[in-house]
Amino acid sequence: MEAIIKGYMWVYSNLIWINIIFAILLVFFERRNPTTTWLWLMVLVFLPGIGFIFYLFLGQDLSKQRLFKTKEEEDNCFEIIAEGQKKVLERDEFLYKDPNFIYYEDLIKMHLMSSKSYFTQDNSVELFFSGEEKFDELLKSIKEAKSFIHMEYYIFKKDDLGKKILDALTEKANEGLEVKLLVDGMGGRTLTKGFLKPLREAGGEVGIFMPPLVPLFNIRINYRNHRKITIIDGKEAYLGGFNVGNEYIGLKKKFGYWRDTHIKIMGSAISSLQWRFFLDWRFATNKGVGSCQSYLVEDNVDNTVGIQIVSSGPDSKWPSIKDGYLKMVTNAREKVYIQTPYFIPDDSMFEALRTAGLSGVDVKVMIPNKPDHLFVYWASLSYIGELLQAGVKFYTYEKGFLHSKVFIMDEFVSSVGTANLDIRSFKLNFEVNAFIYDDMINLKLTEQFNKDLLDCKEITLEEYSKRPRVVKIKESISRLLSPIL
């Protein structure tokens, strides 16, 4: 018994030293938000032995600069793609096609400065609100492809829908088209070499973004590539919330109907998405793309939708998508409508929403009723009370699972993409959104939002105040963990 006690004490004392070392590294070598730093210090101190394991999975940040150094380097190839658009904005004779653009020039310039999000206004946009519509159109576009297909998804499953997409890509690779498929190492962890073999044998290429060191086991939970992009022949591009899997077309009983938003873009905004894909592809595979001239997109003077493709991630100097959301909220005069599956605002976003609500802006936030991550769901509920008091309205989507990431401001500006309204999307995930400047797209998104409200239940302040004590405890614990969720 004495030997066992001594062994235990030896292990415990060494774990204490490990925790102390991690705490020193956390404070002196990382430049985190103070709240997050204090949270991790508490985890390390009060959970010796377990705390540093949690840190390895959720908190590692020390190799960030080294890890993303190559992503910060932009070679001439990628500059070629955007050079034409850049020159257009610099011309003295440049004119906005719609006079409304001038009222949002500060937002346009902010994105241009913070994330090289070049503004184009020769685009058309098609909206998809269901998985069946989106994937039917995507498969049609793949079938009609003539030159190349570049596809990037966070989640790609080897189920019926995944096999259907992979078979379509394999068929085009067999026809001699350039096919590149990029999948995140966490979201695509179930993909096997056997599943991907037909595409590779057909001449297609597959890249894995930060793959796991051990199959099915990835300690890099942070820094995931959450983007969903498809570019076909430089003529069509898809962007939005849908991943590839049966649940995204409503075939999983757990979630039921899957409500999401995706867009198809035609116009020179595709060049920015192509640029984004190439940067991610190079980072994941260490391969260049050769001559970029063949990927250039010609201007389409017949279209008038203004778009900026905005990317952000742990390799970005600024949280560009979050800044865009923030500016939309603070600039709004009439309305801000938000759809997000996860609502964990940081302090600045929380204060902006509170101020907008108190200012009389019609602020409506729609979140799911069916959680897919319980801690995140409880954390989301914890932020609602004070905002309800400020006049912000909240709704839970009852028809199925809401996964849509949509921001609507007043009558002209809207955003559709991959970024949720949570700290993980703002700081830890690689995200991409289209900020759209067009009254008709804004109107269509608003009409769909109002249609979705018919399938929602409003969270009133009275009902919120009557939450059971056990729910309040869960919310409090989850909110404490919100910086790392």
Outline the structure in words:
The protein is of the alpha/beta class. The chain folds into 3 domains: 2-62, no CATH class; 74-97 and 121-302, Endonuclease Chain A (Endonuclease, Chain A, 2-Layer Sandwich), CATH 3.30.870; 320-484, Endonuclease Chain A (Endonuclease, Chain A, 2-Layer Sandwich). Helices cover 44% and strands 21% of the residues. The protein contains 19 helices and 18 strands. The protein has helices at 2-29, 34-46, 51-59, 64-67, 69-72, 76-90, 105-115, 131-143, 160-174, 193-201, 270-285, 320-331, 347-358, 374-382, 384-389, 423-428, 439-453, 461-465, 469-480, and strands spanning 120-130, 148-153, 178-184, 205-209, 229-232, 236-240, 257-266, 305-312, 335-339, 343-344, 362-368, 393-397, 400-402, 406-409, 413-417, 421-422, 431-437, 456-459. The protein has a 16-stranded mixed beta sheet that branches. Strands 10-16 form a two-stranded parallel sheet. A hairpin with a 3-residue loop joins strand 5 and strand 6. Helix 2 packs antiparallel against helix 3, helix 12 (320-331) packs parallel to helix 13 (347-358) and helix 14 (374-382) packs across helix 19. It is globular, with a radius of gyration of 23 Å. The two termini are 41 Å apart. The model has no long low-confidence stretch (mean pLDDT 83).
